[in-house]
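How a chain folds remains the central question behind the approach discussed here. For one protein, we set the task of working out the structure tokens from the amino acid sequence alone. The sequence in question and its structure tokens are set out directly beneath this paragraph.

_____
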Amino acid sequence: MRVFTPGDITEQQQSQNKYLGVLVAAKYARVLNEFPKMGSTGKEKKLTTRALEDLHGKDFDYRVMPRRRPD
């Protein structure tokens, strides 16, 4: 299993914010968790590891949306 450091994540990101990278990976892991596990063999990687690998390999794109403040 590969260990990802915050520096590894910021190398591949659009912004140089390690906290944003961890948050994006966590949200993506939640999305992966919603998919059904049909035909699973039990030997799959953890969802957080898979999300960090996908983020590091630029397998998905993301956008940061500005927060809307109530008027």
Summary: The two ends are 48 Å apart (CA to CA). The chain has one domain: 1-35+43-64. The chain has three helices and no strands.
